[in-house]
Every structure is written in structure tokens, then in C-alpha cells.
Amino acid sequence: MGTLVLVATPIGNLGDMSPRAIEALQNSALICCEDTRRTGGLLSHFGISGVRMAIANEHTETARIDEVLNLLSAGQTVALVTDAGTPGISDPGERLVRAAIDHHHVVSAVPGPSADVMALVISGLPCHRYVFDGFLPRRGPERQQRLREATGERRTVVLYEAPHRLARTIDDLHAICGDDRRVVLARELTKMHEEVWRGTLAEAVTHVATREPQGEYVIVLDGAEPPAQADDNDIRAALTEQLATSASTKSAVATVAQRLGVPKNRVYDIALSMSAQPRGTSAS
Fold first, then answer.
1. Which of 69, 96, 113 is where one domain is finished?
2. Same domain, yes or no, for 173 and 241?
3. Is residue 281 part of a domain?
């Protein structure tokens, strides 16, 4: 059986190209890439020659599947690279990987540079749990939904953004999160003009407004604070609201417990105490 190998390539500094990556590309029957000129320059720099290239970008990846599967079925190795970084991370690759797996071929990878991981680990924000959300939609309801999800996430969130849309995205994050949420802006990672800026969202608005953003950015956003724990009065108010809709006690307890994030038995005990109260009185 053939093997599809995802090969990570430098995101800037060519010194990050690993010996395994060079060997994998040299020994492939075909290298699928986003841009043959860019990948051709990379191959030339490392002395790799005689390997055929084929474009597999966001528009052509699906059309490339049959050719790749035929080579894999013949026992050949096919390499997949993107313009920079690890294939499949906000870049083409997912569909070729899925097709190879569905046809029972081996899928492997040569790990290496990835802008999202690099920005995360140098951000100074919590790294033990994080969410990668790639590029946000440019407009419309889907953008608003993704912004709400990202800003409500309690884990650290990593986003990508183009320089000409950076100011708008920072403004949107600031409008939802307020002034004090911590954020890190990283650009030109591993390159000569690498820059990592750290501060609050309020400070980020000013920072972005006073400069001309250049290069693609990685935005690392601190996770949201956990919601305040509901007290007994909050639970009583929520139960009263639910019971007023003719909900059963069982249904009201389940709904309130889920909404407020408190144990069901606690909500049930308060519901029992409410039902035992004489009419016209209220709990202190």
C-alpha cells in the first residue's frame, strides 16, 4: 500500500526545515502543493529535484483525489505540503487525507512548524487547554455566531487574521469582551521582523489603530472567566419563572439546573421548600 505523507514546511525561517521533511519530499512520486512556484523554490533551495508537483489548493484539492489514490494504490508515496506550515491547519489537506483513509491507505506526517502552536506557547496565556478557530468568516450571521462562541470559550482561543481585517476583528472582540480580556498578537513568526505584542483588548484597539498591520496575524485570546455561581435566590427566581409557564416541577428543576450550572438535587431541594411555603410568603 502507498502512503500519503503530510509534510510540514517552514513558516518563515528555512532553518526550520527538518532532515525528515527533506527526505520525505525527495522520496515521493508526487508532491501536492498549493503553488508550484513557491514549493519549487523550496525544493530548489534544499537540492530536491526530479519529483513531479501538482497543485492541490482550495479549488483543486477534490479534483486531485483520483490521481493521488491511483498512485497510492500502485504502492507509491505522495507528499502533501502547503505554502507554509502544517497541511490541513487552515490550509488544504483534509479532503485528501479523508479520501486516503476511506480507501485504506496509510496516512502519516512529518511534524514541524505551525504558526498557531508557536503563537500559543510564546503567548504567556494558558496552554494546557486551548481551541483553534482559524480564520473567522468575513461577514454575516456566521461571523457573529463564531465571535460569540470564541469570546464565550473558557479555554484559550487561537485565531488567524489577515492584516487588512485585523482592526475590525479586534474591535469586534473588544465590543463583546470589554476592556480587560488579555490578548496576544503575533506576526511574521520565525522571520526577521517577528513581533509578539501582549496586552488587553482595550490596549490592542489603540495598538492596531496606530500602525499599519503587515503579514498574517495569529490572535491568542485569553479564555472567559467562569460565570458567577448562582445563589439560592437566583435558583428560586429561575424556578418561579419556569413554573409560571406551567412546566412540571421535574421539568423546571432540570431546566434550571442546566441553565445555572448547579446540581439537580440542590435545585430540587429549593423547589420542595418553595412548594411547602404558605401562600403569600416569601423565603428570606
1. 113
2. no
3. no
Identify the bridge partners of residue 157 per DSSP, sorted by sequence position: 131, 221
Number of domains in the chain: 3
Helix (H) or strand (E) holding 278: none
DSSP letter at 56 equals: -
Domain that includes residue 65, residue range: 3-113
pTM above 0.85, yes or no: no
> How crowded is residue 122: how many other Cβ atoms within 10 Å of its Cβ?
17
Burial label for 99, CB within 10 Å (0-12, 13-18, 19+), is: buried
Alpha carbon distance 117, 207 (integer Å): 23
Burial zone of 167 (CB within 10 Å; 0-12 exposed, 13-18 middle, 19+ buried): middle
10-residue averages of pLDDT along the chain (284 residues): 95 96 97 96 96 95 96 97 93 94 97 96 96 93 92 95 96 95 97 96 96 92 86 90 84 87 90 73 45
Whether residue 201 is found in the same domain as residue 249: no
